[in-house]
Each structure stands twice: as structure tokens, then as C-alpha cells.
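Q: Okay, next protein. This is DUF6537 domain-containing protein from bioreactor metagenome. I've checked the sequence twice, so it should be correct. Can you predict the 3D structure?
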Amino acid sequence: MFGRSEERRHERALVDSYESMIRNLLANLRADQHAIAVQIAQAALKVRGFGPVKEANRRAYETEIARLLQALAEPAAKREAVSA
């Protein structure tokens, strides 16, 4: 019963999405992307809490991941200029 709740479905989907993203990231990782890759891998640790707290953290995580993936796709010179 509890495993079928909307919240649990979101949790399972988040895990599946995270695992897929990490596999893809590792398959295509270059040395100049290491710092951002670490941030991407660690971002999931922020998704915690219960109910509305966890949902807010999940939304913040998704926003953070989108920003980091966009930064990962940028040329190394542009990433260095932004982080400096």
C-alpha cells in the first residue's frame, strides 16, 4: 500500500533517473569535467526529509541538476571563466 503512494513512485523514479544520469556521466566523463561531475553526484544527498519538505528538496535538486548539466555541456574555457 505505502509502496504505491505517489511519494514512493517519485522516490523510485528519482533513483532510476539518478542512476541513469550517473552511468551516462561516467561513460562520457573528461578530466576537465571532474569538479562538476562530483557536484552532480553529491547533489542527490540534499533530497531528504518527509512529505512537503522532501518534495521541496526534490524540486531544488532538479533545478540544481539542470544547472550543473548545462554547465557540464559548456566548453572548459567558459566553465573556468564562470567559476573564477
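A: Here is a summary of the prediction. Residues 31 and 57 are 30 Å apart (CA to CA). The radius of gyration is 15 Å.
Q: Noted. On to the next one.
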